[in-house]
Design goal:
- There is one protein chain.
- With about 450 residues, this protein is mainly beta.
- The chain has a domain of about 140 residues.
- The chain contains two helices and 38 strands.
- The strands form two sheets. It has a 35-stranded mixed β-sheet that branches.
- The longest helix has 24 residues.
Length: about 450
């Protein structure tokens, strides 16, 4: 019985070896093929190119032509299967009209892998089996042409472009030197180094973008990283992004779960933040709405808060400050120059390093708040308040004539002036609020 089992195992082994040898004998060697095609298209034309799982390099030239050069590297498979693959590769789908050209380089519909075996269905419907194939394309196009690119699973390198571009990228890596004044990028799971460019619209998801310089930009982004050296204007809708910008003139942004770092000074900034962090240098005019967020910036000439809830604000020197509605917030300013207006403030803290002699007004209504607002000793001002509970501290000895001061139980009313011609008006209502005015 033992001898029979050994013979059976030996016969099975010989059969397997034979099958492997037969299979290997049907496999062709590695194969390389290429093709080149040229199409007439002027520099004012419109060119659309699509590619899948390949490397792409785009060059520019002075000719009124588009040239495509393709290379394919095939490993394994029957010679017949290899040739069928080459035939499809060498004949991309081309549609040409009046000053328009579209080239689709799709080779396969799908590949099914079962264990070590795979079958690829080509776009012509034929099914082949090869171990592996790689494709590379090189394009030459006029630099001012309108260029539309559809790319999936590609590495892309593009020379400087001047014409209108529209790129749709999925899981692609793209490097550009520069682009013109009209660009659109739609990106998913991609990386882009864009160099210098003009105006652009970007719609990105889980992607990383780097650029040296751009002009007027609109971005809609989710789960992405964005680094730009210099921008003129930016309109940004952000969700869970990391944004770093060097120089910028104007920013408008709505963000959720995002982090910003802006190194340059801004003239105008409009922010609507939810659970986000924003850090910037000096700002001319800042219009702000936030919830569960943190704002850090340098000097702000005009700070307008529409609504703020449970947020942190830390600023340098502030010129004008108005806050329509505040709840559970903490404001810290190095100084205030001109005015403060907080008509609806609930359980918030305001800490001012110093109120300068240029101050014109301080007005508000405060409930359960803590206010530190040290006035310049040389500032002539009028003071009027109506407070219940809490404590209001101010330099009482600076007021000498025409004073109204009424204290009754938990209420305190005061009206007076430090001079006949005060340059600053201070008027507020307070409930269970502690305020220091010296």
């Amino acid at each position: 019985m033992k001898t029979i089992n050994l013979k059976l195992k030996f016969n099975i082994f010989l059969t397997l070896i034979s099958l492997i040898l037969i299979s290997c004998s049907t496999q062709a060697q590695e194969k390389k093929e290429s093709f080149e095609k040229t199409f007439n298209l002027s520099s004012t034309g419109n060119f659309t190119f699509s590619c899948y799982d390949s490397d792409l390099k785009v060059n520019t030239w002075a000719n009124n032509e588009v040239k495509i050069y393709g290379e394919i590297f095939i490993k394994g498979g029957k010679e017949e299967d290899q040739q069928q693959l080459i035939d499809v590769f060498k004949n991309p789908q081309v549609t040409q009209g009046t000053n328009t050209l579209e080239i689709k380089t799709d080779i396969s519909k799908n590949t099914v892998v079962i264990g070590p075996f795979s079958k690829t269905t080509l776009i012509d419907g034929k099914t082949i089996t090869v171990d592996k194939y790689e494709v590379k394309y090189t394009l030459w196009i006029p630099e001012s042409i309108a260029f539309n690119l559809k790319s999936k699973y590609n590495d892309i390198e593009i020379a400087p472009l001047k014409g209108k571009i529209n790129f749709d990228l999925y899981d692609a890596d793209i490097t550009m030197a520069s682009f013109g004044s009209d660009a659109r990028f739609t990106m998913k799971y991609s990386n882009a180094s864009l160099g210098k460019g003009g105006d652009a619209i970007l719609d990105i998801y889980d992607s990383d973008i780097e650029a040296l310089e751009m002009n007027n930009i609109e971005i809609t982004s989710k789960y992405s990283g964005i680094t730009i050296g210099s921008i003129n204007t930016l309109d940004f809708n952000s969700y869970d992004d990391n944004i770093k910008i060097g120089k910028i003139n104007s920013l408008k942004s709505e963000a959720k779960y995002s982090e910003y770092i802006i190194n340059g000074e801004m003239t105008n900034c409009i922010l609507n933040l939810y659970d986000s962090d924003f850090e910037a240098s000096n700002i001319g005019k800042l219009v702000y709405t936030s919830k569960y967020s943190e704002l850090k910036a340098g000097n702000v000439n005009q700070f307008i808060v529409n609504s703020i809830y449970d947020s942190e604000v830390n600023l340098g020197d502030v010129g004008e400050f108005s806050c329509s509605e505040s709840k559970y917030d903490n404001f810290v300013f190095t100084s205030i120059k001109t005015s403060v207006n907080m008509p609806n403030t609930y359980d918030s803290d305001l800490q001012i390093g110093k109120a300068l002699s240029s101050l014109k007004s301080f007005e508000g209504d405060f409930k359960y708040c803590s206010i530190t607002f040290p006035l310049d000793p040389s500032l002539p001002f009028s003071l009027e308040f109506d407070a219940t509970y809490g404590e209001i501290k101010f330099s009482r000895d600076r007021f000498s004539k025409n004073i109204t001061s009424i204290k009754e139980d938990s209420k305190y009313q005061f009206k007076g002036s430090t001079s006949e011609n005060p340059t600053c008006k201070i008027k507020f209502g307070a409930y269970d609020t502690n305020m220091i005015l010296y």
